[in-house]
């Protein structure tokens, strides 16, 4: 039995500019940790070969230190690795791969396929047929040549490619690089290891996307895994098993607020998030001042516990009740301002008006508290 670990889309050097700098740095660091975890899993599961189906790096211009760190992170597995360039790290005339070569960063057990020459492992009975990208986008199916490559009948034929299986993936994927949906059958492949789609996905029993080993977006696409592929003999269907590799749980949560119990329900949900959660919270509906204070407190507490909680309240309308207005003691000019801000939430500056109203309410609350304190002495 031959055992392979299939992974892809490491995106080393990816920047997370949408997050606070501290959170972004930790999410970027998690990608190195994922590679180290993959190497340890490969050793633990006694795999014979690790295949990396492109986009090892997120960009050509990553720092030299990043290149060196990546290959150091692979050290826990001493067996053979086969990597191909993807659309983010294509094998250009001058690329991240030529820099890695000049740095002497690539270990002897790592084969980087910058051209489509087959890689033969006689002892493992494996022929790897690579289809590396030498430009970011191509309109030709680079796997088409697999069928014309002859290999010994005793060898398992493994394809390694990066791109979009036609008619299977969404239209807005990162790369248009096409791959025929029946490539495994037409090229007599025992397994076709793919990259580009960031989630684990089976195209057919012999054709799989491994997805990224560490989630990097809020799209619910089953990321955070690698695939263990067991192959017995040529022509026999592989046995594919998902192995969890990711640390962070990326979640997109949408909720509507209409009544007080909705706020408590959201607060209780926020209370469940911990240090491995990355959350995009989107709220809509309407809320009074007391509810707004309760919600902001719950969000702040969740942000202190979770890796990141990004809250989008732009569709949440702040509607003070009559009791809220009376409690604020916002008479005269301040009363007019409160009224204008409430009405402004129906216009193009709705989010600004809501935030200003919440800020003003907080200031008036503080003033009332100070006056109340003085009056009690």
Number of domains: 2
Identify the CATH homologous superfamily of the largest domain.
Metallo-dependent phosphatases
Average pLDDT confidence is: 89
How would you characterize the largest beta sheet?
6 strands, mixed
Stated plainly, the CATH topology of the largest domain is called Purple Acid Phosphatase, chain A, domain 2
Unreliable residue stretches: 373-377
Percent range of helical residues: 25-40%
Strand content: 15-25%
Q: Tell me the number of strands.
A: 17
Alpha carbon gap, first and last residue: 84 Å
| Order of helical and strand elements | EHEHEHEEEEEEHEEEEEEHEHEHHH
Structure in words:
By secondary structure, this protein is of the alpha/beta class. The protein folds into two domains: about 1-245, Purple Acid Phosphatase, chain A, domain 2; about 250-375, no CATH class. It has helices at about 20-45, 65-75, 95-105, 185, 260-270, 290-305, 320-330, 330-345, 350-375; strands at about 1-5, 50, 80-85, 110, 120, 125-130, 155-160, 165, 180, 190-195, 200-205, 205-210, 225-230, 240-245, 250-255, 275-285, 310-320. The strands form four sheets. It has a six-stranded mixed beta sheet with strand order 4-3-2-1-13-14, with no helix packed on it. A six-stranded mixed beta sheet has the order 5-6-7-10-12-11, with no helix packed on it. The protein has a three-stranded parallel beta sheet with strand order 15-16-17. Strand 13 and strand 14 form a beta hairpin. Helix 5 runs parallel beside helix 6 (about 290-305). The longest helix has 26 residues, at about 350-375. It starts with a strand and ends with a helix.
